[in-house]
Amino acid sequence: MEETISLRNLFQVLSKRLWLIILITFIAATVSGVISFFVLTPVYESKTQILVNQAKNDQQLYNTQTVQTNVQLINTYNDIITSPAILDKVVKELKLDKSAQSLSGQIQVTSAQDSQVAQIVVQDTSAKRAAQIANTTATVFKKEVPKLMNVDNVKVLSKATLGESASPVKPQPLLNIAIAVVVGLMVGIGLSFLLEYLDNTLKTEQDIENILDLPVIGVVTNIKDVPKPTNVSRPDVAARVTQRGETYGS
Questions:
Q1: DSSP helix/strand/coil, 216
Q2: Cis bond upstream, residue 171 (ω within 30)
Q3: 192 Cβ partners below 8 Å, 6+ apart?
Q4: CA of 132: how far to CAs of 136, 138, 159, 216, in Å?
Q5: Domain locations along the chain
Q6: pTM of whole model > 0.70?
Q7: 131 and 161 in contact (C-beta within 8 Å)?
Q8: pLDDT one-digit tens code per residue, 126-174
Q9: Is 217 helix (H, G, I), strand (E, B) or coil?
Q10: Which residue, 182, 188, 164, 52, is CA-closest to 114?
Q11: Which residue, 87, 171, 223, 233, could crosslink 40 as a Cys pair with Cβ 3.0–4.6 Å?
Q12: What is the largest CA-CA distance in the chain?
């Protein structure tokens, strides 16, 4: 015997346990909001840009091969920027209470395809410290790269600045709450169908027909107890009854 589930049955299951879905969604959104606003530490982001470009003399014209070489060097420079050779000096100069390896987890170096500009992105719980780390890393790298690569082709294109009203990039409370609402809805709907699947009680005539594979020929409805009328003593009614009794007796 095959069981078929219609959209109507699905909506009936959801409507029957709508309170459970709403409750789970509300709890998930509330927990996410509390954690985002009061538990997680805000993280700020600061950026600085460096330009990789060979120094030119009067006789040197624009060379496509030189530009391509600079672009290829950026990949190497990205690894050097986050290496202990650079970050150890950054930690020492800023007197940070962390290791170079820990600091490298806060720094991300990115560059667009076929671009000679690299961007140093730093994330930290302090907006001021994030800008200091970004600028110091770029300065130290520019100073140390001639010793490491025997080339002097790095310039600081733009420095990280601290805005008057710096806003954190993490956490994002509204996004976290939206995700929690979606997850809560999914969990609530899944739990509703699970409870419906585990519920093996018979509720309708259709359930009996599906299990016994026999037609239902009669249904016994629920009979509620009818309350008995209470004896009401009213003077006017009693007088009429007495009067009628005397009339019939005569």
A1: coil
A2: yes
A3: 13, 14, 16, 17, 20, 21
A4: 6, 10, 10, 81
A5: 9-38+172-208, 41-169
A6: no
A7: yes
A8: 999 999 999 999 999 999 988 888 877 888 988 988 766 678 888 899 9
A9: coil
A10: 52
A11: 171
A12: 148
